[in-house]
Amino acid sequence: MSELVSDFLSRDVLGVRVGVLLLILPVILAGIGMNLVSRQGWNHPPDSRYYLPMMSRDMGHSWGDAVRTERSISPSWNLSPWYFADNDPTWQQVRLRFLYPVLSIPFIWLWGLSGGSMAIPVIGTVLFIWAIARVLQRLYGPGVAVIVTGAFSLTVPVNVYTWAGTDTLALGLAAVLVLNLPIDRRIGKANLAWLGVVSVFIALTRQVGVLAPAMAGAGWLWVLVRERQWRNRWLGSLIVTAATTFVMTVISMTAVSANTTGVVGRGQTTYFGILRQFVHYLKIVTEQATTYMWHTDRLLYALLIAAGISVLARFASDATAVFVGAVASTYVITAGVGFSDHMRYEMLMFPAAAVAAGGLVSLAIGGFLPKPVAQTGTEQAPEAAAEAAAAAPPRPRFSLGLAAAVARTAPGRFLGLHLPRGDRWKPHVILSSAVLAVVVWVSLAGSWSSTIAAPASPSFAAAQGGADYAVEPLAKPPAEQTLHILFDQATAMAHDNINLQGALDWAHVMRYQPIAPDEPGWSTRAKDGTALVNPNSMGQDQAMAEAYGRGLSLNSTIKSDTVKILSRQASAYGEDVVFTVQDKSGKVHQGTATTMYPVWSSRDSATVTSLVFDTP
Predict the structure, then answer these.
(1) Across residues 450-468, what is the average pLDDT?
(2) This prediction's pTM
């Protein structure tokens, strides 16, 4: 009986020992299950207000129905059709992430929109666990795979961010990238096919920058320096990942009209200024990430520190190269956006960090753990253990014999099923191309379209009036009340009380007059001195939000209780007014403003979408 159990536990399921899976999967699945049933509304975080309507649109619903359905699931998050407007930069970036919404459709048929939207994130987490367990088992043995993979399965981001979003799907795809890289081995055509396919799919999941070519490029560079050979075993992976990333970048820049001007430079116009700003935000995101991990997730902190120590201890290794490439790519993303969002952006480097941390664990206690064992197919043992692996028998795999039977047929030979596992690239490419074609077709017919542009003024057009999805206001507060609230809010923003909701709308475009170079929109001002800005593009940049508050409140000098309306044009959705207001010196400022009536609660204030002074 014990032999049967031992044989069962030592078998491989998709390249991972059954014993390893039994030690890891129950823990992570129990944690995910507990979160799903206990956190309730936070199964659908703020970002889900984009993805759930995309799913509804992909299933044939109108924009109006899609927005109303999402509001019924997540009433705490504000959402309006102008969030999907053709001139909204956040939507222009999100609309390219259509892999997750389309893949969720079969599960929505089974469990509805609320439950079905959670399936793909859970699958993404399981994919991450399986992929890093497989690569760690190959490199360092099943003991290290259990320790490192089990530790990552207990970290806060892996558990908490298994919610209705793209975080864990991107994490799982990043792990598959690492799995197919030539870390301490040579890879076949099948691995190259997977690298190309996953590079395409991850670009349709979230913006990951140059993650794949950065890891492959670092590996190629390490081997080039070590072996003095530029045509080394990493060259193929570098070419494939660089080519697919370049193509997907060109497609995304062509297909969407996202305005990313100043994302990295933030108003700087010289190369030195941009570099200085970039280094400045490198410091900020590092401090934010380390502070978060110290207070919230010390296990993750320890794992990343272990990966860093491994870099020093095993600097010449392939694992070090991959980790360095992943860190560099991640920093480009986080420093570019200007903040670290509780390790959500940094999750993409977790698979590479797991491989590096596994190297340190192997160095420390590898002598007491089972050694790596060669597997059939393309999986090869590390070079240091090649002779021992060659002498060991191949690990038993579960097989029904169907592949061998199909390989003897004409279609099987066409697909290359009779070839060694590493050369079977056609099935991967054909199946993935079919999935991609379906995903693109469904998306183009559904969520890819935008709502009409929502300009800053007049109020009727700002609320997308005339469209069948325009939301009827729930109250009609007067403009003088709204401007009073806005000036108080702007003054508070200028003094470290950041709030981009209230009398402002988080997503709607806003026209105002920046009065200093550090204020958003300064470098894109029109001839009249006004600029169009989107508050949601500021992210969590506190300095920019404070500068925005100073611009709206004329450096905190406006006396909000002195607002007077000189003329008013009211529409069904808001007001366009000419007003005056005094500053603290007694000077009277005249200007124009556009307000939109509240659409989420009758107790809300109206929102200001245009505020232009005649003479600031």
Answers:
(1) 93
(2) 0.89
